[in-house]
Amino acid sequence: MALRMSTLFLRTLREDPADADVPSHKLLVRAGCVRRVAPGVYTWLPFGKIVLENVARVVREEMDRMGAQEVLFPALLPREVYDATGRWTEYGDNLFRLKDRKGADYLLGPTHEEMFTLLVKSEYSSYKDLPVSLYQIQNKYRDEARPRAGILRGREFLMKDSYSFDLSDEGLQASYDLHRAAYVRIFERLGLDYRIVYAVAGAMGGSSSEEFLAVAPSGEDEYVSCTACDYAANTEAVETSAPPALDAEHPPSEVLDTPDTPTIETLVDLLRSKGYDITAANTLKNVVVKLQTPGKDDEILVVGVPGDREVDLKRLEANVYPAEVAGVLDDFSAYPELVRGYIGPQGLPESVRYVVDPSVAPGSAWVTGANAEGRHAVNVVHGRDFTPSGVVPAAEVRAGDLCPRCGAALEINRGIEIGHIFQLGRKFADAFELDVLGPEGKPVRVTMGSYGIGVSRAVAAIVEQHYDDNGIVWPRCVAPADVHVVPVGKDPAALEAAEKYTVEFEAAGLRVLLDDRGASAGVAFADADLLGVPYVVTFGRTLKDGQAEVKDRATGERTLVALDDLVETLTLR
RNA sequence: CGGGAUGUAGCGCAGCUUGGUUAGCGCGCCACGUUCGGGACGUGGAGGCCGGGAGUUCGAAUCUCCCCAUCCCGACCA
């Protein structure tokens, strides 16, 4: 049945909502797709709900096609399941928790690894049953510290999550590849411009991990991509190719008096005034960070990076897992051996863990602190004067840095994370002792992959990439209708023709949005632009010539088409 | 959790500095009439605990204090 605007539960807004600032948020509200209920919680109105269902349909079709099977877990889950993996505690404030009338703890599922693992454990017990991939499309709940950008980052959101179960690492790789290929098909069909980038496995454990990022300036994720080859990675996960070890001869290191130079800038200024030809890039900055590891005492870590770069705490954290980086140390009172502003790697006590960014190459010489108030050392050589206990990528990544694969320049852009695939490995299988009986009659521990698509977020991502000054421009595949029929003018023949061709279009399999409100032409056209249906067919003054006007919403191109050719013209597109 | 901004009709806003009739404008909504291919016009309507509480005052949307909420930036975030 055609969507009739006279009765459709839809109210378009002429002005942007005051609380929105990203395009998708403004447009989805103005076009009557969503309404805010609470921070990060939205109602889907009929027009938007159709789009959401269309996206879900594409996801479902491709998941089914790759052989995954759909299930549906409850969103309301008992605490016990999350206790088994420790996540009732680990998830912290982000978990929506509640109690039933008896006082028993429940939660609203933020993700469903535990449930899938338990389900397979309870039903399957033989190697003959594997591999298997299961998925669901369901609301997730996360009490985000700061929901933002409308449905781009909500506290309740619709997500497709799937899990693969395999006997071997090779099997897991095959399941991963199948998912990856399915995701490519899904995002192609959705009309999204996206990049597949290397990601950090992070708190989920596991190894190989890639994110699908929809390219958008409003995106929250920053990624690098090579201007020459196809390397792309989340900035947290960028590999830094270590410069080759240098074996040049350096003069012996020497300690200088450098009063009042606690920062790189003051140090460089002072040394240049004394005739040393150095820049911030020649200095070795040593930053003290606090590490917290679940179940362990807090500790500190000193990280050495070139002085012209900041430490990227997210990137550092991605490389010290499972420890978390709790921030930069600001109270040095408990560490008298560390001289704030004048820390150097040479002569640090054994008890202090010291690591360097890969860009601090073995054999390179640095200007750095001398571990004494107001003193620095020059010609401090990595490998001669100090030996770090490890190499950890921690320096901020910048546009123009070199690609770790081919050496060309990297660029930095932003994207919206619409999909994430990774090889979980045996973390959850271990937690639940998920084994199947192998062909030799002995139990085999199952290995898992985890794969997610933000369905509601994808709707916002699509809008972020498909809009203009006048409104949304839906890709045909997810559009709420194929054709928007607009009768215009006071001649009743216009509405009659609109009604007649609505029937014909539908008979030809087209989905129709009919503007039978009797609104003025300006209102009807403006709403058509805002609502973004791919083709707008206007019946009006051209009827007397036996024609209607067909407008392509994306290009703005308008063509007059003979009434008899309308159905053919629109179905061919 | 830190920084900033904002709360007045369904939506977008003005009024607050300098307290004083019945709190105003645009959009939207209702009725009637005119209009009818790019957000038309007229007339008449409906719609407000001015975020909440306490205070100052003869009198508070307006001044003071406290609280709450929302948005943005940061921290945080399978």
Would you mind describing this structure in some detail?
- This protein is of the alpha+beta class and 573 residues long.
- β26 (467-468) and β27 (471-472) form a beta hairpin.
- The longest helix has 21 residues, at 169-189.
- The relative contact order is 0.14.
- The model has no long low-confidence stretch (mean pLDDT 85).
- The structure holds one RNA strand of 78 nucleotides.
Quickly list its features.
single chain; 573 residues; 13 helices; 32 strands; RNA-binding
Strand count? 32
Rounded mean pLDDT is: 85
Terminal CA distance: 21 Å
Shape: globular
Class of secondary structure makeup: alpha+beta
- The helix content, as a percent range, equals 10-25%
**Uncertain stretches of 5 or more adjacent residues:** none
Largest sheet: 9 strands, mixed
Q: Rg, please?
A: 30 Å
Count of DSSP H/I helices: 13
Portion of residues in beta strands equals 25-35%
Task: Quickly describe the structure.
This protein has 573 residues and is an alpha+beta fold.
Topology:
Blueprint: E1 3-4, H1 23-30, E2 34-38, E3 41-44, H2 46-65, E4 69-70, E5 76-78, H3 79-84, H4 87-90, E6 96-99, E7 105-108, H5 113-123, E8 132-141, E9 156-166, H6 169-189, E10 194-198, E11 209-215, E12 221-226, E13 232-234, E14 254-257, H7 264-273, E15 284-292, E16 299-306, H8 313-318, E17 324-328, E18 353-356, E19 365-372, E20 375-381, E21 390-391, E22 410-425, H9 427-432, E23 435-437, E24 443-445, E25 447-454, H10 455-465, E26 467-468, E27 471-472, E28 483-487, H11 492-507, E29 512-514, H12 521-531, E30 535-539, E31 547-552, E32 558-562, H13 566-572
Parallel strand pairs: 1-29, 4-8, 16-18, 18-21, 28-29, 28-30
Antiparallel strand pairs: 2-3, 5-7, 6-7, 8-9, 9-25, 10-11, 11-22, 12-13, 12-22, 14-20, 15-16, 15-17, 19-20, 22-25, 23-24, 26-27, 30-31, 31-32
Helix pairs in contact: 1-10, 2-6, 2-10
This protein binds one RNA strand of 78 nucleotides through residues 11, 13-21, 39, 91-94, 110-111, 113, 140, 142, 144-146, 148, 153, 161, 202-204, 220, 313, 327, 420, 422, 450, 452, 486, 488-491, 519-527, 529, 538, 540-542, 549.
